[in-house]
Amino acid sequence: MRWALVKVCLAVTTMVVVAFAVPLGLVVKEMARDRAFSNAEREAAAVAPALSITADRDQLERVVASAGAGSRMAVHLPADGGRAALDLGRRRAAARDIRAVRGLGRASTTTVPGGSTLLQPVALGSGAIAVVEVYVPESEVTNGVGTAWAVLAAVGLALIVGSVAVADRLGVRMVRPARRLVAGARELGEGKLGARVPEDGPTELRLAASAFNAMADQVVQLLANERELAADLSHRLRTPLTVLRLNAASLGGGPAAEQTWAAVAQLEREVDTIIRTAREAKPQTAPAGPGAGCDVAEVVRERMEFWSALAEDEGRKWRVAGVERPVRVPVARADLAAALDALLGNVFRHTAEGTAFAVDVHNGEDAVIVLVSDAGPGIPDPEAAMARGRGSGHTGSTGLGLDIVRRLAESTGGDVRIGSSVLGGTEVRIWLQPAGRGPVGRGRGGAARRRRPGKSVFAFNRPRSLP
Fold this sequence. Notes:
Layout: H1 2-53, H2 57-66, E1 73-77, E2 86-88, H3 95-104, E3 108-112, E4 115-123, E5 129-137, H4 138-141, H5 145-189, H6 203-235, H7 238-249, H8 255-278, E6 294-295, H9 296-314, E7 318-321, E8 328-329, H10 333-350, E9 357-363, E10 368-374, H11 382-392, H12 400-411, E11 416-420, E12 426-432, H13 447-450, H14 455-461
Parallel strand pairs: 7-9
Antiparallel strand pairs: 1-2, 1-5, 3-4, 4-5, 6-8, 9-10, 10-12, 11-12
Helix pairs in contact: 1-2, 1-5, 5-6, 6-8, 7-8, 9-10, 10-12, 11-12
């Protein structure tokens, strides 16, 4: 905006200067010419009275000398009676031009080497016509023109420079508030909720800054309300958790009691984590550093230790593959564990007891793939299930589990797909970006989907026959 305003002002001022300076320069040149020939006419008029009185050569020479013209003036007397034609001074004009002026009886100018001459006819006492020739050199015609043009050019250049400077200052006055508005919007987008913009500058930018500040205040208020609501709702879970803990205490000893105690303890930790996160001053929007993230294989092994106990109680066969070597991804350990718990919880919740399931981890060249598959009835409409995972809700399912998984995958530039597994049920495929590598895409339409491995990936990840 700043440079555009400067360019417009430069173009307009240049056109105005040219429109006025060029005609004015031509007028100055014409005025200098008129001044030179006016002086020549006055010099010619100074000898006219003497010519009307006498034609004596000596007297005329004294008159010409007294006129101050010097070698620039010449007097041409025609032959009259017994007197021959007389030329006083140096003649520069052609004879035909002199005869033409004498015949026409009016002044005329003619071009000669080095300048011009003024030919002025004068009537003698005898009635004959004499011609007074005054030489006007070119230097006298252009005297002062160069200086005047230089002054005009300097004034025009000063006007252009001044207009550009004024336009630049105006541009700065307009651009600075706009840049502050952009910086404030960027800071707000990065999670700096205290970002505000000074309300100054032109009226439109002041209104925009005021609207931005009001929006930022509203965002802060909405986020505070959401955090308080999440914290309050999480806090309400403490009462049923206390009841569960008391009931678990009445179970006595044994594996079932220990599993119940472990589940209640984990649930309490999750509730505490939700409350602390909800009451944080601002969201965590900074990207993960080089050492951030977790080991997928370790998290899968840990969570399968928990779910395997429930699987044995329900008579489910299960299998884990691809967790022999570390596989790091740039996500928090708790987030990945929550996503796996959501998917495995769906298996236990929506399939009958005795239904087998498997978890496979594939560390590809540009993606880490986690597959959770089961031998249940499958999902008849995967697209509707993914829609529930985006918050649309459905009878009998909130869709929060798939939403947790989806947000985890998209935070790394990956995505989630639901399909049919070789076990005959549902297969949920999570694509994650490996730690320290380039992004695999952005969401559902990114490079992850375009660069997925082909059939060999499906063959690699198919669970082998369960024991």
